[in-house]
């Protein structure tokens, strides 16, 4: 892999972003050590350190991080024969709130395998080629992705009067600098003619700081990546005004490894990827159960975890490296060049040279999987039968889901109407109940929280939409009006009243 040399000025600018943003860890699983990936000897056993940096609260990374860690999947697949017969593995897990501090630790040889989004990955790989002293970082597998940019979002305080990006002119907006959300925000501003250096005040804030700032009204808006665009509104102190899917630019999180570690221990890299494949399988087969476990491991409510990675979720899980991933990296290169964060000589087409899927292909071969079949697999969407009518669910975009607090399983419905009928019946039986309701955007199938969505009701057909504009456009074609979820519920309330006879 070859990239043209950066200018010294732009290199320093790039490193400044990497080093200054998000230096605090969210929930370190181990303390940082000044060890390297060189092996040492203890009690006649060779010690191999495997240092992995993840982002526990960034739900896109959980199958590559928290699930593997908590289910001991890496230990299950680590080689124990041949040159690894007399080896002691020293596995170190650390968790951060974003990608840049993981890059710092990888540069310092304190992390061997790291997980991060497309923009931080671009900074990571280009920085290593300038400062790695011959060591590169290699993109070896993908985690979750959004085909159209879903997952990133812009939020305002819940009671704010601001409803559009245009209303942010002259305001103070925060975002984690160097993150995928940063790139999304800059593109969104550029699309509507806002210059963030002149038209507003843009500051860097980590998710935990921004959450407090939104609660206290210290900022006018905040942009962030998975899962905060849904998590903060779910917790009741923020409101989403812009979704990354409105940019139409793909986004993803991936796995990077130091080249020296991979070259010295290819079998360990393959073992890690086998663990990733099993973690993906576990989530696809048991999304409800895994979401509940991840809430305990990562502190993100299970409903939000399910929102992103469950069937018809905001994000799709696919470990292979495909064109959608390269498109996301190309976009990040183009945006970072405009910001002066990477050298202008870097060619976006070179991103294909940053990846090496040979380790993943070997892991799949060993596990009896076909790489091309996995790469081209259909999206994970809602299926099965309707919990009320028992009819098959044929159109996932029109489906709805209901998850009661305390229940282990999510109930699926072929339509919003069927879900509401069942909801009213169950609430009358349970008296006091708390539930979360999911619907799906009619245009792209993206999972939505019912209360935050817009609806068009045409007879018994109820269509949900992410944006009010999309709902209005659809309503005009049907000659009806846009309604909210409360109105949808009320329209069926009288039909469910018990007879007085």
User: What structural category arises from helix and sheet content?
Assistant: alpha+beta
The CATH fourth-level homologous superfamily of the largest domain: Periplasmic binding protein-like II
How is the biggest beta sheet arranged?
7 strands, mixed
Count the strands?
19
The CATH architecture name of the largest domain reads: 3-Layer(aba) Sandwich
Form type: globular
Q: What is the CATH level 1 assignment of the largest domain?
A: Alpha Beta
Uncertain parts: 1-36, 497-501
Q: Kindly, what is the distance between the CA atoms of the first and last residues, rounded to a whole number of angstroms?
A: 79 Å
Fraction of residues in H or I helices: 25-40%
How many helical stretches? 18
Radius of gyration from CA coordinates: 23 Å
Portion of residues in beta strands equals 15-25%
CATH topology of the largest domain: D-Maltodextrin-Binding Protein, domain 2
- Specify the oligomeric state: single chain
Give the overall average pLDDT: 89
Task: Write down the domain tally.
Answer: 3
């Amino acid at each position: 892999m070859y990239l043209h040399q950066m200018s010294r000025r732009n290199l320093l600018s790039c490193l400044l972003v990497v080093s200054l943003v998000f230096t605090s860890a969210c929930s370190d699983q181990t303390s940082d050590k000044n060890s390297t990936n060189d092996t040492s000897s203890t009690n006649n056993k060779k010690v191999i350190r495997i240092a992995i940096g993840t982002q526990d609260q960034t739900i896109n990374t959980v199958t590559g991080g928290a699930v593997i860690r908590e289910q001991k999947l890496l230990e299950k697949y680590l080689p124990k024969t041949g040159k690894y017969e007399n080896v002691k593995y020293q596995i170190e897990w650390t968790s951060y709130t974003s990608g840049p501090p993981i890059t710092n630790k990888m540069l310092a040889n304190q992390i061997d395998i790291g997980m991060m989004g497309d923009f931080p990955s671009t900074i990571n790989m280009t920085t290593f080629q300038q400062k790695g002293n011959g060591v590169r970082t290699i993109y070896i597998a993908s985690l979750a992705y959004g085909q159209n940019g879903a997952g990133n979002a812009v939020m305002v305080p819940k009671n704010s009067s601001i409803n559009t990006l245009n209303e942010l002119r002259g305001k103070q907006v925060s975002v984690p600098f160097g993150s995928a959300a940063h790139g999304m925000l800059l593109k969104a501003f550029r699309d509507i003619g806002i210059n963030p250096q002149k038209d507003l005040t843009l500051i860097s804030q980590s998710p935990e700081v921004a959450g407090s700032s939104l609660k206290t009204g210290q900022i006018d808006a905040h942009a962030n990546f998975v899962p905060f665009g849904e998590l903060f509104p779910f917790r009741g102190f923020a409101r989403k005004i812009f979704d990354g899917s409105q940019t139409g630019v793909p986004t993803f999180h991936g796995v990077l490894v130091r080249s020296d570690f991979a070259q010295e221990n290819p079998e360990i890299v393959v073992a890690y990827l086998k663990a990733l494949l099993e973690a993906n399988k576990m989530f696809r087969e048991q999304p409800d159960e895994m979401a509940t476990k991840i809430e305990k491991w990562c502190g993100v409510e299970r409903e939000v975890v399910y929102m992103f990675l469950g069937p018809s979720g905001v994000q799709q899980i696919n470990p292979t490296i495909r064109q959608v991933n390269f498109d996301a990296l190309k976009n990040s290169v183009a945006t970072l060049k405009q910001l002066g964060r990477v050298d202008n000589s870097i060619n976006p087409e070179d991103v294909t040279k940053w990846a090496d899927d040979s380790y993943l292909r070997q892991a799949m071969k060993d596990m009896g999987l076909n790489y091309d079949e996995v790469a081209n697999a259909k999206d994970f969407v809602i299926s099965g039968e309707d919990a009320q009518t028992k009819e098959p669910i044929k159109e996932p975009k029109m489906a709805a889901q209901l998850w009661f607090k305390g229940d282990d399983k999510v109930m699926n419905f072929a339509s919003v109407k069927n879900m509401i009928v069942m909801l009213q019946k169950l609430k009358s039986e349970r008296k006091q109940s708390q539930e979360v309701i999911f619907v799906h955007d009619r245009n792209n199938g993206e999972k939505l929280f019912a209360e935050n969505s817009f609806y068009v009701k045409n007879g018994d057909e109820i269509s949900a939409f992410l944006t009010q504009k999309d709902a209005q456009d659809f309503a005009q074609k049907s000659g009806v009006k846009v309604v909210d979820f409360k109105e949808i519920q009320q329209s069926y309330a009288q039909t469910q009243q018990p007879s007085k006879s």
